[in-house]
Amino acid sequence: MNTVVEKLFLDAASSRHLDWLESEAIHIMREVAAECANPALLFSGGKDSVVLLRIAEKAFRPGKFPFPLVHIDTGHNFPEVIAFRDRRAAELGERLVVRSVEDSIKRGTVRLRNPQTDSRNAAQAVTLLETIAEFQFDACIGGARPAEEKGRAKER
User: Model confidence over 106-140: pLDDT tens digits?
Assistant: First the structure.
């Protein structure tokens, strides 16, 4: 096979595979919304959550999402990312719930060993659990790439 034909074949196969993955993601998102009474979509404005937001648009538009957008803010985001998060939620007319690790620290539910050097990323779990309890979410939809999250590599 010549290289041009090979490239066209591989591009077509790759495109079909991406279309299948997108279709599967849309199906799963609709399935979660149908099966759960009070789901949430985790949305930070980062690349993974932007993809999920786009999948939610494809799954539910022109209607409203059957869940709010939820961001657990570490306080370590660039201001431009927070502005994008807020602008995108407003453009879509969707509810955005924001809870912060800083507030959990002030309440004493999160304690950093060394507030000057410890990352707040690990502390997000506590704030997320508090938010789940506060709003009684029964499912949270979030994104992670298998290459970065080995434990999630085989999950749907």
Answer: 898 888 777 666 667 778 899 999 999 999 999 99
Closest by Cα among 76, 25, 28, 34 to 54: 25
Owner of token pair 């453009």 = 91
**Contact criterion met (CB below 8 Å) for 28 and 56:** no
The verdict on pTM exceeding 0.90 is no
φ/ψ of 110, rounded to 5, equals -120, 130
Longest dimension (CA), the chain: 66
* Residues 42-56 pLDDT 10s: 999 989 999 999 999
In this structure, what is the dihedral angle of CA atoms 60, 30, 97, 48, given to the nearest 10 degrees?
A: -90
Distances (CA, A) of 9 to 2, 50, 123: 11, 29, 46
Strand partners, 96: 69
Q: What angle do CA 68, 74, 80 make, to 5 degrees?
A: 80
Q: How far is the C-alpha of 120 from the C-alpha of 128, rounded, in Å?
A: 12
Is the bond preceding residue 79 a cis peptide, omega within 30 degrees? Answer: no
Residues in a beta bridge with 139: 39
| Contact indicator for 73, 100 with CB cutoff of 8 Å | yes
